[in-house]
Input
Amino acid sequence: MSYVPVSAPGYIQGLIAGQIHSAILQTEQAIEILERDARFHVLVDMYAVEPEYFYGTYFASQDWLAAHPDLAVRYLTALIQAHRFMYQNRADTVRIAAKATGFSASVIDKTYEVLLVQNKAFPVNDGLQDQRLTYTITRMKSLGLLKEKEPKSEQLVDRRPIMQALDVLGTVAQ
Output
């Protein structure tokens, strides 16, 4: 067995063509290939295995954040607005995402059902739940991914930009 590098957009075609035999797929990719070729099946749904894991992360260097705090707040404000829009406007979200990704509206609608209805994968507020961050750090340590002492979540996350965005937008119930 050997690793064959394939770009993320090429996974579906690579699987169907037999160029590769397995891949880690995004939800919409998994739905697409299952609709196109009955030979394939999901080996594991990581969200089902690790529902408490913290999956969403945005990175910036400390130097960049210190130099551009206003840009970080504007970015996070727009992101929160986009997430709220998605939950409130399913039809528009499906239409926009289908056009942007090239996946069919049917695939995107099924993806919407999984990510937004079932899993509520996108936060409408800060999305920084301490219990999920702590669980993820502990899980990474147990898997041997963290060799040193477990960091506290406040050492890893600068909440100032997201809290400033929420000061502008307010919080909503999810």
The chain has a mean pLDDT of 92.
